[in-house]
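User: Run a structure prediction on this.
Assistant: Running it now.
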Amino acid sequence: MSELRRHWTPTAVAFLVLAVAGLVGTWIFNAFAIVQMRYFVGDLVSSGPAVSSITVDLLVVAIAGSIFIIVEARRLGMRFAWLYIVLSGITAFAFTFPLFLAMRQRRLSARADQRGTS
């Protein structure tokens, strides 16, 4: 059991909590959109300048975050980094990006342990 808890630093746990909040928070509104039979993409870009501004803002952050995921995962030797990006289209980037950051923090902690015991 202690092996499962290994490398879960407070930072990694904080990122994991944010990932769960991102998943739950976005899917509540996704469910509302489905129940109300709304055209999700159309609502994002046609509900006024403020909504469009937020949409562009989040889209740019998601693209930059996706690039960061690929580059950082390669640097740290993390496999399946593309899966975080694919899952963001199915769930939400507000879920997958903090999830990646949590897994990244665990990888950094594991690498620090390996250097300390070598």
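Residues 20 and 95 are 6 Å apart (CA to CA).
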